[in-house]
Amino acid sequence: MTYSDENGSLEALAETSVSVARGEFVCLLGPSGCGKTTLLHILGGLLRPSTGRVLFDGQPLSAPTHRIAFVFQKANLMPWRTALTNVALPLEVRGAPREEALRQARKALRLVGLEGFENSYPRQLSGGMEQRVAIARALVQGAEVLLLDEPFGS
């Protein structure tokens, strides 16, 4: 993957091949700036590679899919939504009935230890709690692949 602008170009990732079997747990390790986040963004369909391609279940991946959920380094919660409605958001976007989305969101918040904080806004949560809301938001989607980009880094 090469990034280019008026100042030139920077190769962030070179000739990378990744193959992950169903049920496998993979961890990318490397120093800061080596391309881990770029690779995750490519694998999640958030970035198109400069060359090559990404296959998911043998099919080309060129855009984000509900089959892959992402937890970013920062929680990226909507400040005007409660923890519950932040977690329900991906289900709402996919057209799930509101009550079903909220039921599943409550279950996901319970799973990450945030039962009782459903009506809290991001500004009322600690940084770690915000990240757990973000993790619950990823889990509630029922995605086949979960990409975590240093969610506990801060």
Structure description:
The chain is of the alpha+beta class and 154 residues long. It has two domains: 1-13 and 26-63, no CATH class; 66-154, Rossmann fold, CATH 3.40.50.300. Helices cover 30% and strands 13% of the residues. It has helices spanning 36-43, 83-93, 98-111, 127-139; strands spanning 2-5, 8-11, 55-56, 59-60, 68-71, 145-148. The strands form three sheets. It has a two-stranded antiparallel ribbon with strand order 1-2. Strands 3-4 form a two-stranded antiparallel ribbon. Strand 1 (2-5) and strand 2 (8-11) form a beta hairpin. The mean pLDDT is 93.
What are its keywords?
single chain; 154 residues; alpha+beta; Rossmann fold; 2 domains; two-stranded antiparallel ribbon; 4 helices; 30% helix; 13% strand
Helix/strand layout:
Layout lengths: L1 E4 L2 E4 L24 H8 L11 E2 L2 E2 L7 E4 L11 H11 L4 H14 L15 H13 L5 E4 L6
Parallel strand pairs: 5-6
Antiparallel strand pairs: 1-2, 3-4
Helix pairs in contact: 2-3, 2-4, 3-4
Give a count of the beta strands, DSSP E runs of length 2 or more: 6
Query: How far is it from the N-terminal to the C-terminal residue, by CA?
Result: 26 Å
Described by the principal axes of the CA atoms, the overall outline is globular
CATH class of the largest domain: Alpha Beta
**CATH architecture heading of the largest domain:** 3-Layer(aba) Sandwich
Biggest sheet architecture: 2 strands, antiparallel
- Any idea of the CATH topology of the largest domain? Rossmann fold
Number of separate domains: 2
Going by helix content, strand content and strand pairing, the class is alpha+beta
CATH-defined superfamily of the largest domain? P-loop containing nucleotide triphosphate hydrolases
Estimate the strand proportion.
5-15%
What is the helical fraction, as a range of percent?
25-40%
Radius of gyration: 17 Å
Question: Helical segment tally?
Answer: 4
**Low-confidence runs:** none
Q: Give the strand order, joined by hyphens, for the main sheet.
A: 1-2
Q: Mean of residue pLDDT?
A: 93
Taken in chain order, the helices and strands follow as: EEHEEEHHHE
